[in-house]
Give the backbone structure.
Amino acid sequence: MNLPDKTTIAGMVTCLFICMLATFATAQVTAPGQPAYGPGGTGYAHAAVDSMFFGSDITDIYWLFEPSAPKPDSVPVIVLFHGNNQSPDSTKVTIGHMGLIRHLVRTGYTVIYPLYQYGGNTLPYNPMLNNTANVVNLALTELTNGNHVEPKRHGDGRMMIALIGHSRGGRMSFDLANNYQSLGLPKFDAMASFMGSAGYLSMDGIPTDTRVLLVRAEHDAYVDVTLESMEAAWDSLDHIPCTHKSYLQVNSDSLGMPVLTADHFFFFSNLQPPSITNTLDFYGSWRLATALFNCTFFGNDCDHWHDDLDSISYMGRWSNSTPVAPVTIL
């Protein structure tokens, strides 16, 4: 039997040592946490969130989340739509949405969370859309007439209100914004769709001054279904001026830990330990959505969703100073 000589053994040990160092170095690289400032940051105006549940069945159930500590006189309203929910108990808020809800509310928004499904797909889509419009109106009536933070209003008295949705909820946002008049809803100032498409070939019903954000994921597991329809949704927005719309892609990055996977569900906060939330929340969904709303209602942070290419694309830096894979501006 031929044994390796000392030179060969030394080379093998050296190679193994280098590999171990490389593995150790990679393991020590960590993703950026929540920034101290900016639309995805921790500079919150409110320390607490008040929540209330309303309704008893699919025709009227929703949650309200309002800012507190301190309680403001009035704030804009955001309606957030979950994706397809097959849970047998659809009265609960999807835990992955709570991070974004708390972030928006503590920033200074009231969030309406309609539960447009009960125990899964109980209604075909079009009846579901009509029913959801009714639930939104019930929530707006409660906000206006109940003991709540008042909806903030424009100078002409119109309510400041926007939509955001994920997957099926993104389609819901598109279709409610497009058909708001026939559905008896207020005009929406802005809408954001994450990994969602549109249910109608024409989006001409969306007013030209509505700000629209469409976001897709690099590794969407539903790309064969979603990507084509998202492209079609973007094409249907030709009547919206370029100054009022953005089409972006959030990308994956596996340089360090946790691995950042921009898939169909990155809109959810990461449910795996050790962290509930990660960089894709802080710099992705939270930042982009909040920037859209801050820009729409207060004229702030417009550079993070539309006006500045560098600001839009920036996703923070890994602990070794390497930039996280930037947002692609489509």
In short: The mean pLDDT is 87. The first strand starts at residue 48 and ends at 54. The CA atoms of residues 59 and 131 lie 6 Å apart.
